[in-house]
Amino acid sequence: xxxxxxxxxxxxxxxxxxxxxxxxxxxxxxxxxxxxxxxxxxxxxxxxxxxxxxxxxxxxxxxxxxxxxxxxxxxxxxxxxxxxxxxxxxxxxxxxxxxxxxxxxxxxxxxxxxxxxxxxxxxxxxxxxxxxxxxxxxxxxxxxxxxxxxxxxxxxxxxxxxxxxxxxxxxxxxxxxxxxxxxxxxxxxxxxxxxxxxxxxxxxxxxxxxxxxxxxxxxxxxxxxxxxxxxxxxxxxxxxxxxxxxxxxxxxxxxxxxxxxxxxxxxxxxxxxxxxxxxxxxxxxxxxxxxxxxxxxxxxxxxxxxxxxxxxxxxxxxxxxxxxxxxxxxxxxxxxxxxxxxxxxxxxxxxxxxxxxxxxxxxxxxxxxxxxxxxxxxxxxxxxxxxxxxxxxxxxxxxxxxxxxxxxxxxxxx
Length: 414
Ligand code: GLU
Known about the structure:
By secondary structure, this protein is an alpha/beta fold. The chain is built from 15 helices and twelve strands.
């Protein structure tokens, strides 16, 4: 895999937008500096009775538009640079879909697959305690991210509530329904990807998006597949960490999910042929959805890609050089901060429901989320056209412009 420093990449994207918007250097500096980063030591009693100290982070990038918002990831490769970059991307993501939040992100360096349920819970609760001073419904609202789920969100909500002497569901989103989670939160990212693909297809006058390729068949990939199928799409190739498969006549998403549940992989699904990752990414198709890892679409792959639309369900699947190649080749890339914003859109709606103690149905939530995403897509598209840039730069110009508007209204104190 290509190694790219995510923080440098994030700063470069900000620089590009700053040039177009002609931002004052001091303000540019403010936007390029996280407001606060907390580094915490997390001692945990392991099942063998020994103490192990883990490191956790919470980066709060910017809160001009509202409280910080963003997930918490558990991964052995978590670094402070990565958490900083992800917190900056959250600032832009929230601004694009116009939800009143700033950006934040957290992470713990750990291998969750090697922790027992008890160890993971003790680690989670210790982390919640350690960051409790900087989070809160009006300060910073975490959410799930890589290898964290509703289980961890419930534990964090519990610690915070116990510490504050009252149940406080609005401190975190992505919770189970029984403690104030929202309908549609589990399908949110995939559903948002599907809405973006539909809008992109409309823009380029593509009537049918019949042939869809999905790299990664986790939460985002499977729900994107299901909803696109419902919208008339046909999934022809998918992959997971064990390999890639293709059936040009179409794969039945529900059946592939069932097969993967039973066998632990999509590979071997009846009627499909096994192919390589490169073959998957370069399969002739209408829509390619990278929903797996970072840096998958390198310049070499970008030259060979044969699709009309790429929808980045994953964070950072396209390298910056590959972006330029795709733009020149006329391939529309729906950038991650727009394509996968469904998650944070529904997180916003979950937070609103928690604050008002009044809950909406699945359809109500999905409809409100659709409005945010469709508007975000159109605003991005129009700005990209105006400045003759790709959608990634267009989305950055939109996001940075919106954050600047808030800054200009609030001013600097003292
Ligand atoms: N972790 C998700 C993201 O990166 C969701 C964040 C949230 O809901 O706050 O967009």
